[in-house]
Structure formats: C-alpha cells, structure tokens
Write a structure and sequence with these properties.
Chitinase A, domain 3; 2 domains; single chain; elongated; alpha/beta; five-stranded mixed beta sheet; 157 residues; Helix Hairpins; two-stranded parallel ribbon
C-alpha cells in the first residue's frame, strides 16, 4: 500500500483501526519489551532463539503501527447519503447468482475493512469492481479463472 494513499473508511472501520493502534502501542509494545528483557537475561543473544523471535515480533508490530498511523492520517469517511440507487463504496448490495439462484449480501468497502467471510468485500476485488456504479436490476458479469459468473442486483442500501 502506498503510504499516502487515501483510505475510505466507515465510522466502524475507523474505530477498529484506532483501537488496534491503541492496543499495539499501549499493550503489545510493553509485552514485547518484556520478552526481549527476559530473552537477554538468558545470556548470549547471537544464538538466543527467544531473543530473535521477540525482535522479529517487535519489527512486525512496529510495521503494523506505522501502517495504521498512515491509514489514520489519510482516511476519509464514507458518505452513505449520496446516491442510493447505484452501488458505491459503503453500499450494502443484495445479489443473486444467476446460475445457482443463491442470494448473498455484500458490503463494498476499502481493502482496510474487507472481511470476505463476514460479507465485507473490497472495492478492488473482482466482485467489488464489477458491482461498483451498477443499479438495482442490473446483471453483472464477473470474470474468474474458470470463466464468468453472473449476478443480478436485487437491492442496494
């Protein structure tokens, strides 16, 4: 992710990012510092697996803190009041698979908030891209490695 890229978030998504950042800074940093102190107490650090693991964890956490801080610096809240008759970022879309007739509901969000298992898909995913800008009643084709999938948009909220 480019560090200065504008990130579109819902209020819920912004809160999650802020909570994770707070947790990493206030809790995880202290836990890792304690792990490093304990590992140093074992003696020679060049061959100390606990020390190396703690330093790797510290590097990962610091990278995540930096990423979260950049998201918070560059976020914009999704305005859900815009045009409800077409799919936008933040829209909740009920679609029907034209082949197997199954219905599913997706919320179209930026990558930061996407959780496909919870029905929150990224605007940059194949389905997200295909749905964006479409209207209720439209048939949407999504290209996948095995061919194409077709969905009908049943409702947009």
């Amino acid at each position: 992710m480019p560090l200065d890229k504008k990130v579109m978030l819902t209020e819920e998504g912004l809160k999650k990012v802020q909570e994770e950042l707070h947790y990493l800074k206030r809790v995880k940093r202290k836990e890792i510092a304690e792990k490093i102190r304990n590992a140093v107490a074992f003696g020679e650090i060049s061959e100390n697996a606990e020390y190396n693991a703690a330093k790797n964890e510290q590097a990962f956490i610091e990278g995540r803190v930096l990423a979260l801080e950049k998201i918070i610096e560059n976020y914009e809240l999704i305005d859900k009041e815009e045009n409800p008759d077409c799919v936008l970022l933040g829209s909740e879309v009920l679609i029907k698979d034209m082949k197997n007739k199954k219905e599913c509901k997706y919320t179209i969000l930026d990558y930061v908030e996407s959780e496909p298992d919870c029905g929150k898909i990224s605007v940059s995913s194949p389905i997200g891209k295909a749905l964006l800008g479409k209207k209720k009643g439209d048939i949407v084709k999504v290209r996948v490695p095995a061919g194409h999938l077709e969905y009908k948009i049943l409702d947009i909220e």
